[in-house]
Structure formats: structure tokens, C-alpha cells
Design goal:
The relative contact order is 0.14. The protein is built from six helices and seven strands; from the N terminus they run ααββββαβαβαβα. It has a five-stranded mixed beta sheet with strand order 5-2-3-6-7. It has two domains: about 40 residues, GTP Cyclohydrolase I, Chain A, domain 1 (Orthogonal Bundle); about 140 residues, 2-Layer Sandwich (GTP Cyclohydrolase I, domain 2), CATH 3.30.1130.10. Strand 2 and strand 3 form a beta hairpin. The radius of gyration is 19 Å and the shape is elongated. The longest helix has 16 residues. The N and C termini lie far apart (about 40 Å). Helix 1 crosses helix 2 and helix 3 packs across helix 4. By secondary structure, the protein is of the alpha+beta class. Pathway: Cofactor biosynthesis; 7,8-dihydroneopterin triphosphate biosynthesis; 7,8-dihydroneopterin triphosphate from GTP: step 1/1.
Length: about 190
């Protein structure tokens, strides 16, 4: 992937400020283009990262029961409006063949996928598919809950509205009891 072009972002931010009627040379705005460029480099750093890379490290462990990491906080940018959405991801999988990954790798994959211009639905399915394709588990379930600023601060203006998306793969697709167990565990504090 291409490296972030800070200078181009700075020029664009200056143009936006002018277009909304601001003076980009005003004291409070002088460094804003530079700050926004730096922020965008950080917020979109996932564009240069493949979430599957986080699952290359596996451990041999005779465990073929549920593994769930819940309440993984994330921040992303809506690709339609370039405003943030944020929430929690819950990632569950049932290992197969003694192949387990580090728990932090699940959180790192969520972060890599979220740090792109994004849709919540795509975060959910990309994380699930990355686990399926690299770990080949019996099953995967990813649940993402988020609040979208494009619904909170503009448009319909409904702060507090939460969007929930799920992606279910493998044996969990047809195992209603296992899915219910995961959802119950997610709801527990």
C-alpha cells in the first residue's frame, strides 16, 4: 500500500477550512492541517496491515472448546462521511487440531481492520473470515456493537443508537445452542 501523503492531506484540510468560510491562517487553525494529517496517518494505519498476519503465530494446545475475547474497544472512520464510529468487538472461535492463537492477536486483528475507511459490517466479516482462513477453526463468531457519529451528530441525530452486526462461520452457523452460549457470555459483565 502507498504511504500516507501528509502534504496532500494538509493542502486538502486548508481547502476544506476555506470552503466552509474559515481562515486557515487564523492562529488557532495554523497547525490544524498538520495535526489532521498526523491523525489520518494513525487512524488509517490499518490500510497497510493484513489482519491475517496476526494469526501466523499459533500454539499447539489440546483445546477444542470455546475461546472468547469480549469487549475489545475499537475506533474507526465511516467511509461514507469520514466521521468516527466506535464501540466494542467480541471475537469467539472454537479451535481445531490443537491450533490456538494468542488472545492479543484477536484484538490486534480487530484494530487492523478498524483502522481504515470502513463499514461496521465489513469489520465484522473481515475479522471472522481472517480467523477462518488462517486458523481453520471449527467455528467463529464475531459480534460488533458501535455508535456511529454520522447518525449522532448529523443526519438523523440520534445519539446513543447502537448498531450490532454479527458474522458466524463454520459449525457455529448451525449450532444454535453454541451461539446462544456465546451471546450469553458477551452480555455478562
Amino acid at each position: 500500500m502507498a504511504k500516507v501523503n501528509h502534504e496532500q492531506i494538509e493542502q486538502a484540510v486548508r481547502l476544506i477550512l476555506e470552503a466552509v468560510g474559515e481562515d486557515p491562517n487564523r492562529e488557532g487553525l495554523l497547525d490544524t492541517p498538520k495535526r489532521v494529517a498526523k491523525m489520518y496517518a494513525e487512524v488509517f494505519s490499518g490500510l497497510n496491515e493484513d489482519p491475517k498476519e496476526h494469526f501466523q503465530t499459533v500454539f499447539g494446545e489440546d483445546h477444542e472448546e470455546l475461546v472468547l475475547v469480549k469487549d475489545i474497544p475499537f475506533f474507526s472512520m465511516c467511509e461514507h462521511h469520514l466521521v468516527p464510529f466506535f464501540g466494542k468487538a467480541h471475537v469467539a472461535y472454537i479451535p481445531k487440531g490443537g491450533k490456538v492463537t494468542g488472545l492479543s492477536k484477536l484484538a490486534r486483528a480487530v484494530e487492523a481492520v478498524a483502522k481504515r475507511p470502513q463499514l461496521q459490517e465489513r469489520i465484522t466479516s473481515t475479522v471472522a473470515d481472517s480467523i477462518i482462513e488462517t486458523l481453520d477453526p471449527h467455528g467463529v463468531m464475531v459480534v460488533v456493537e458501535a455508535e456511529h457519529m454520522c447518525m449522532t451528530m448529523r443526519g438523523v441525530k440520534k445519539p446513543g443508537a447502537s448498531t450490532v452486526t454479527t458474522a458466524v462461520r463454520g459449525v457455529l452457523k448451525d449450532d444454535q445452542a453454541a451461539r446462544s452460549e456465546i451471546l450469553t457470555l458477551i452480555k455478562q459483565s
